[in-house]
Amino acid sequence: MPIEPGHERPAPRPRRARPDTPPADPDLAARALEIHRRLCPVYGCPIPYFHSLDPLSELVSSLLSHRTRNADSGRAFKALRARYPDWRQVLDADTAEIEATIAGVTWPELKAPRIQAVLRAVAERRGALDLGFLRDMTVEAARAWLEAIPGIGPKTSAAVLSFSVLRMPALPVDSHHHRVAQRLGLVGPRIDVGPAHPVLRAQLPADWSAQDLYDNHEVLMLHGQQVCHHRSPACGACVLLDLCPTGQARCASP
């Protein structure tokens, strides 16, 4: 039963998902800006948003996309929506049916119950399956609200705010983005994807718009996909080679 406005259940105390981050080193901030400046003409900033989903739908889409090719997660999302036009139907459905519907993604046996658990948490905390209220919060408050739900981490919370119709200034970091940032020395070799979020965001101007941050994520991600490959990066063809200690070491190797 929906909860009347003003009588929402108290939210659980958010877990500390992102440690306090000191201001970025000025040299790294300057490098981050120069990287953005060089990559934008290559990949065509401003880059059009690839989704115009409501935030709850974007949340489910993001959960499906973990460690999965975009084409496969996109097909799974469309199949899920075709079979269950309303997210309440997904929440109430048999988990095995959901798993079969999203079979094309990586680990459908884990993602099916996780999606239901996340939807259930949203419904219990808000009294409705709707995340539109996040637009009235600050980015940090909205991310903390989302990340208090088990199964939602920094990448997913940022994706919901940035990629959905909310268009809020959050910086997602995926594996390609993270790999390029590490090779360029923007984050250390021991900083994983989750902890890299506040570090990389702090290197960019605080007043950047949602489009600016989306562009930054997209150009680094695209560069990782098209040039800075995981196994055999094309360092000799990279416009960032003079800024990249990893690329310079590779080119200098016999």
From TrEMBL:
HhH-GPD domain location: 64-226
Any one Gene Ontology molecular-function term assigned to this protein's record: metal ion binding
Superkingdom of origin organism: Bacteria
Keyword set, alphabetical order: DNA damage, DNA repair, Endonuclease, Glycosidase, Hydrolase, Iron, Iron-sulfur, Metal-binding, Nuclease
Gene3D superfamilies: Helix-hairpin-Helix base-excision DNA repair enzymes (C-terminal), Hypothetical protein, domain 2
Entries under InterPro entries matching the protein: DNA_glycosylase, Endouclease-III_FeS-bd_BS, HhH-GPD_domain, HhH_base_excis_C
Residue ranges with Basic and acidic residues bias: 1-11
Positions of region (Disordered): 1-25
Gene Ontology BP terms: base-excision repair
Cofactor(s) essential for the protein: [4Fe-4S] cluster
Similarity comment: family membership: Belongs to the Nth/MutY family.
Name listed for the protein in its UniProt record: Endonuclease III
Species this chain originates from: Methylobacterium oxalidis
